[in-house]
Amino acid sequence: MQTEKAPLTLPAINGQTSASATAWFEILHLKQVFRKGWLERGLPPARCESVAEHSYGNAMLCLLLAQQQPDLNVEKILRMALIHDLGEVYVGDLTPTDAVDPKKKYAMEKQAVLKILSGLPAGDTLLENWEEYEAQVTPEAQFVKQVDRLEFALQAAQYEQAGLITATDLLQKVGSQLADAPALAPFADLFPSEDLP
C-alpha cells in the first residue's frame, strides 16, 4: 500500500541550510504522508487527507473549542495539536493493522521528533509538549487527545456522507468516547450510539 504521495527530500535553498529551514522542510513532509487508516478502509488516495491536513483540522478545532475552557492553557494546547503527529514524518502513520507495540511506536516516534526538533531554539519546549501529549496526564494533553478523536470522527462523517467509506462503527466508537469527555460531551449527540442495532 502506498502510504506517501512523495518521499522526503530536504532541499538546500541557494546552497544554504539552517536548523529552522531543515525542520520546516521535514515537517512539511506531513503534507505527503497519507492518513493510512482511510486507505485501509478503501478510500481512494486522491481523496485521502494527509497527516498535515489532519493536524491543521485538529489545531483549528482545538482553537475553537479551547476558548470555552478558561482553565486550560490555549497556547500549549495549540502547540500540542500542531506537533502531536510530528513523529510520522519519519515513522509514517501507523495503524492497528501494523501491530506495532505501543512502547516501540513511542520510541520510534520520539527519535523522529528529536531528529526534527534538535538544534531549534524552542526545540526543548516543543519536545516537552510532545512528551506531555504522549503521557496524557495533564488537562491540556487530554483535551487535545479528545479533540483529535472528534476531528477524526468529523472527517469520517464527511467521507461517509460523500459515499467514500462506511464509517458507522467509527462514529459509534468515537461517540461513546466523547460522552466521557466533559468538554466535548455535547458532540456525542452527533454520532450514533453503540446501543443501536
Plain-language structure description:
This protein has one domain: Orthogonal Bundle (Hypothetical protein af1432). It has 9 helices and no strands. The protein starts with 18 loop residues before the first helix and ends in an 18-residue tail after the last helix. It is globular and about 55 Å long. It is mainly α and 197 residues long.
Stated plainly, the CATH topology is called Hypothetical protein af1432
Radius of gyration: 17 Å
Oligomer: single chain
- Integer average pLDDT: 90
Number of distinct beta strands: 0
- Provide the low-confidence segments as ranges: none
CATH architectural arrangement: Orthogonal Bundle
* Helical residue percent band: 55-70%
Shape: globular
Topology order in helix (H) and strand (E) letters = HHHHHHHHH
Distance between the termini: 33 Å
β-strand amount: under 5%
List the helices and strands and how they pair.
Blueprint: H1 19-28, H2 36-40, H3 51-66, H4 74-83, H5 88-91, H6 102-117, H7 123-135, H8 139-161, H9 168-179
Helix pairs in contact: 3-4, 3-8, 4-7, 4-8, 6-7, 7-8, 8-9
